[in-house]
Amino acid sequence: MTNPQSPHRVLLVEDDVRLANLIVDYLKSHGMHVEVERRGDTVLTRLINYKPDIILLDIMLPGIDGLSLCEKLPDYFAGPILLMSALGSSEDQIKGLELGADDYVVKPVDPALLVARINNLLRRQNQPPQAESHCLTFGKLSIDPHTHAIRLDNKEVDLTSHEFELLWLLASQAGQVLSRQYIYQLLLNIDFDGKDRKIDVRISRLRKKLNDNIETPFRIKTVWGQGYLFAPEAWNN
């Protein structure tokens, strides 16, 4: 199956030669352009020349491991990062997501699932800005949907594209409790299975960046058993 448009550019960071070859062959059969990097400590150099749309990143790598790379990559790469690892515990997945990965798949990777995850991440990355033309302002917080500029207490707040879309969803329905199922459907186009922690991790990141209280959040509240609530009155101080 080929893609009539320009193929997505994938950088696969994987030191297992056999697995890398299998993934490359499958992704190419689905119209993607793939280059392979086998060491973690050479990824940043490769980014300068290749400029991928997405990075598939193994955790166990020579040189620099994948989790350490997750912390460094946002300074050099604005696209999505998909972690791949044989470490499949919830703790490992949560750590990877907290460090900046956009998704996480457990090895052995089902190739059809991998393609679906890649397409989903790229589709969300390439979505046009929100249709709303107005900025949202709550006390000392302002949110611009066109430039994705966030200001709090007259200081710019740096958010990833996925963090911004979650904040915009919550803030545009301020004062309302949004269920996890609703959020998953709108942002990820999947059903919430009761176990996935992607949105919880993004909420945690937003709270840290927006000076919310981590132990007892008052700006982005958790309503137990229901979902999350953006408190419009909590940004005045």
TrEMBL record:
The keyword Transcription applies. GO terms for cellular component: cytosol; protein-DNA complex. Residues 133-232 bind DNA. The modification 4-aspartylphosphate is found at D58. PROSITE patterns: OMPR_PHOB (PS51755), RESPONSE_REGULATORY (PS50110). Keywords: Cytoplasm, DNA-binding, Phosphoprotein, Transcription, Transcription regulation, Two-component regulatory system. GO terms for biological process: regulation of DNA-templated transcription. Residues 133-232 form the OmpR/PhoB-type domain. This is Response regulator. It comes from Shewanella xiamenensis.
